[in-house]
Structure formats: C-alpha cells, structure tokens
Amino acid sequence: MPRIPLFRSLLLASFLLCFVASSSADTLKITSTPPGATVELDGITLGATPFEKDFPGGYFHRTHTTLGQRLEHPMIARLSLPGYATREINLTVGPMNWIDLHGHNHGEYWLIKSDHFHADLELISAAFTGTVAAVSSAQPATFQLDLSLEEIVKRAKPAVVCLKGLNTMGSGFFVTATGVIATNAHVARGDSTLLALLPDNVQLQARVVYIDADLDIALVKADPPSPNYAFPYLVLADISAVQQGESVLAVGNPGDAMLFSATKGIVSAVGKFPSFGPGTWIQTDAPINPGNSGGPLLNSRGQVVGLNTLKITKKNVTGIGFALSSTDLLTVLHRFYPDISGATVRASSDAPADSAEPAAAATQLAESSTPPASSPVSYAPPDGYGQLTITSEPDAAEIFVDGKFHGNAPATLKLPAGSHAILLKSPGRPDFSRTLELPKSSKLNLKALFDPSPTP
Description:
The chain is mainly β.
C-alpha cells in the first residue's frame, strides 16, 4: 500500500476537519416574554416560543470549503401572540462574498448572528392608544378647500419625523397624538428601536411595534417627552378621493440633502402595480429619493394620500416615484383601531375619560382642514388677516361671506382671520355653502363645483 506524504495527510485532515465543522448542526433558539408566541421563519409557521431548531453549522460560521452548507438568503423571524403587537427579528447578517481557499468567488451568503434571540412583546392596548383622524369616503366630493403650498408645509412639517436605524434612514409621520408613527417596513425592518428626530431637533427613542407581513408598512411608537405632551399628527384621506392629475406634495428626509424638505408634483396614475408588491400605488412625478421612504404624500388640503415608498432608477428614466396609498395604511391601522370608518377613531382598548376633546379636535380637522387642537404646535391666533381665493364651476357665481355680498367668482378676498360662513349662488342650481377657518397670514383656495344639471 503506497504511503501518503506527511504534508498531504495534514492537508486531508484539515480539509475533513473543515467539512465536519461546517456540516455539524447548531441549534437556533428563540424565546419571548410572554412565552407561547407563534414563530414564523420566512413566512412558514414552525412552532411557538420557546422555540428551537437545528441548522447546519455553515449557517452560523463562515466556511471555506465547497462541501460546507451556507445560507443563501436573509432570514427573518416573525413572532405573534393574540393581544400583543407582532414583532419581527432579523436573524442574519450579510450579504458576504463566499470565497474558497483558492480565491474563487462562489456568490453571496448570510450568517445567523447568534444562536439565541429574545423578544419582549408589547401589549396592543399599551402601544396603540389615542385617536386616528381620517376623512370619510362618504363625505360629499363637491367641495374642495385648497391650501397654498406654504400653508401645507407649515401644517404638515411638525408631524413629520426622521427615522434612523443601525443601517437605514427614512421618514415617517405621526398618525396619533400619543406617538404612533407610520413609515415603510423597509425603514423599520431589522431594528427593534429607531431614533426619531423631530423638526424642532428633539430626539426620541421609537419602538418598532408592528411590521406588516405583506405591505411595505410599519408602525413605530415614540413616547411623549413629558406627561402632558401631545404630538402633532396628520389626517388620512381615502384613496377614493385621489384624482389623476391633482397636485401632491412630498415631505421627508432625502439622503445627502436638507432634512424635512418638500417636493411638488402631480398624481401620474393610481392603481395596482404587482411588480412592486401588493396594495394600491400612487405614481407621482414629485421627486422621491432614498430617505423619503415612509414620509407623507399630501393632497392640496394637507391630508395624507400615501406613504412615499420608492422610485424607478433606470437609465433614461426620470420622474417616476411611487407611494403606497393611505387606504393601505388605514387597512393596517384598522387592526388596532377597529372603529375606523369616519372622521376620527379612538383605540377601543384604551379610551381615557377625557376622550371628547381629542375626538372633537380630529373631527374639526377632517371637516375644515385646520390642525387638531391636541397638536402642541403653536399655530397663528385668530387675529390679523388671511387671503381666500374663490372660484366656481360654472363661473360668475355670486359670493356671500358672513351674509354680505362680495362680488362674483373668481375673486380673491382679504378677510379677517377666523371662522367665516361662505355662500355661493348660481342661477338655477342649489346654493353652495360652507364654514371654513381662515388662519392668519394664510392663502387658501376654495372651489365650488355646482351640479351641471339645473334644478327643475
């Protein structure tokens, strides 16, 4: 029998040792407080906490042999328990390039970061408190109260946040005065907490309390900096109110640019776009860049119609961005605020005794497009003057403000700041009336759409 040279024996032994080390199984353990949470790995339900499963050693340790098994995709654990907010845990780090002993690159792989992960689950009743303000789709669509671009930014910006994780930066916005923030799942995924930077330079820790399994939507919770503090929040408008061609404004934090910046565009299209994922998408030419993800897309009334999510980056392609619709966000919020149907909703699991004031504030916001009374932002007091531009279809409608005749539409009026009763009359058609709040130094647009069919 031929004798094997010593150096070849050592090389063979080293090779076999690598093979054994990389092929032997290691155990992954996932626990939670409280226990009993259902564990899904990559969308497949595998058990409940405390959970254990054996994986090849190559999933935990780097391998240099062609025989060692390696993880060729990222792995996410999703923990759910009735009554508690669902948690996602990013189990892996990567991608890394797999290079063998001869220096050949065999592609990318991921490693499981630890053999034990633990999650503290949060009660839904503790995380999802306060109210959600939404414009009812049942409200008449014949009335439009348009704000100037300056006014939209002035009202929306205080409710927008910059969110920073270990490897991500994005945007979000408050949907309740109690600190619930809406953003994209790809902004929040992989972190249990994010740093929330507010426009007034206040920095808060925000917990990731929910990541949707299908839609690119996440909910984050920031605790108020003081017991009596109320966050400014935005009103959500149903997608049925969005029309192709209408003006929209995106507010967010694009990378390599100034924070809390705004860009303007139009609604290019609305509908399904399966290649980008489930949900209803709003295509817009408003510039959306990395860092804008999760920020609000606002209509001319300052209401949220979508979450800025992504843009197409291809050669010779410009001005194509996408936002997930506010209706998709409302669908997610409905799981925690089950009574969403009209102008304002309070979490049924946590309704404090003084709920009448915030509810009234949110209702006022939905009806008159004025900021909620619960907002800590100091808006202009009702003194001084504002500007109101009134148009009508058809033209030449008679304008009455607080019972006084002010000429015919179109017209631009300088009025005292405060509440005003607006009445427009067009021969042979029902009168158009509305009460609106005119803030100091504001520039508002009011368009009255009369029924084209004259009254009999």
